[in-house]
């Protein structure tokens, strides 16, 4: 569905909340009265907004539907002609459907097993401790996002991909442009995509010549050995995708998690008293994230009934996992933070064939950072009232601009 006179009358999405850690009021209103609604995206295009847990899970889990691609003519998320990273060259090169997508996921998924994450854990903890020490040495107040939340996942994913983390400022700029919905022009997006592609292409050429102990070297060797050589375009798109996803979302989530836990001092005290709650506290923070970004867009290639509404083929469905995670029909006392909540089948990482590949890595990083902060900075507190924290606006993945803290 593309922009028209009719869509200009539709509510704009994503919705805005004045309180940085609280959800927009529209989520609960739509879940109660209009679980399948029509909204206008930042691009001006129309989408069907899905807000209830069962409905979101149903759409995301259905193997018939995938992310819109330029050939579908589906809704664009961003206001650039390309639709940002969602309809970028990267999205067209990586297989989105069927056996090709499953094979791609299997090749990448080998690097995100629980066994590999456990092996990485000591190194993550040592780096987190070093970053905390450096933040403390600079004095109060500190910015926990800039000091810890951002550099840790950058260091981890750069190590996994064999790229120097000294280039992290360049990655941050390219990622920011490619994930933006409103802040950059088409020309700026194209430039960022081309620069990132050239950088990653040069890196892959070096890995072909001198392989290392990293994902890209392994992908080159494994695909060559199986007689199915991945093109440089696919390797570049994969490297860019992993680099963006591997640091941007986790860096933002670390800061939001700590902010949520410090916003109510009782939560932090409960974790200090019982550190065994760290794992469930991480999951609950993921569930309650009110600044999670736009959600997951799916292109319906055939008529589909959801929430009592038949959506026709050609509809772009925006699945709000963050709204679904606060659905009272799926979670008891859904609006409350229960640090020991278990089970916790939240949809923060999506569901189905396109569920986040890197979720074991993200979970491990979140757990490690929380464990280190509780141990090294038990007196940690927000340096500003929670209501004065500032959101990052116009980004496909939600976050805070900074996280001012004292200790």
Automatic annotation (TrEMBL):
Pfam families linked to this entry: p450
Organism: Amycolatopsis melonis
Name recorded for this polypeptide: Cytochrome P450
Family: Belongs to the cytochrome P450 family.
Superkingdom: Bacteria
InterPro entries attached to this UniProt entry: Cyt_P450, Cyt_P450_B, Cyt_P450_CS, Cyt_P450_sf
SUPFAM superfamilies: Cytochrome P450 (SSF48264)
Cofactor(s) the protein needs: heme
Keyword Manganese listed: no
Alphabetical keyword list: Heme, Iron, Metal-binding, Monooxygenase, Oxidoreductase
Lineage: Bacteria, Bacillati, Actinomycetota, Actinomycetes, Pseudonocardiales
